[in-house]
Amino acid sequence: MIRLIGPGGAGKSTIGALLAERLNVPFLDLDRHLDGRVGDISEYINRHGYDAYARENVEAYCSVFREGIRPGVVALSSGFMTYANDAHPEYGRIRRELEECAQTFVLLPSLNLEFCVAETVRRQVARPFGKSPAREEAVIRTRFEIYMALATRKIETMRPAAAIVDEILAVLSPTNHGP
Fold first, then answer.
1. What are phi and psi of 152, to 5 degrees?
2. pLDDT band of 128, cuts 50, 70, 90
């Protein structure tokens, strides 16, 4: 299973769907899966708080495996790798597995902080649920270093989606892994 992580607006859903299509495997967008469980995510956060959302989001990820859903590609929620260690009883284990898996990719608009911030803000405020530019900037500035510190391959997404999919497929190609 290929897992895509990164900030909101990085292209996880778009790239994930295209990647799954190219591989002819099922695609799961964790935000949509969670939305099916709890309803509107923004309303859920407003009612129950961010910590409850984080716990429920990790639980939604766990439920995918308990329910026998077998996606070939998963786009995780933007903050998934930034939760507090005690967000969920399984979170520490899941986070380690995600970081150690060669099929986990961090998608970022750019590996340069300022370019990443500018592009993330531009993409996020254009969305119907986008917050204020200042709020979006604060979120990406806080999370950027967390994403960069992850021991997984980083993929820049300020280029055509097909090129990003090709890069991921090339990394996963058996010819890149030796005998």
1. -130, 160
2. low
Question: What is the Cα–Cα distance from 72 to 115, expressed in whole angstroms?
Answer: 31
Instruction: With CA atoms as reference, report the closest residue to 60 among 38, 45, 79.
Output: 38
CA-to-CA dists, residue 90 to 73, 82, 174, angstroms? 21, 14, 31
Cβ neighbours for 139, distance < 8 A, ≥ 6 positions apart = 7, 8, 131
Give CA–CA dist 77/117, Å, rounded. 18
What pTM did the predictor assign? 0.91
User: Number of helices and strands (H, E) in the chain?
Assistant: 8, 5
The 10s digit of each residue's pLDDT in 72-95 is 999 999 899 999 999 999 999 999
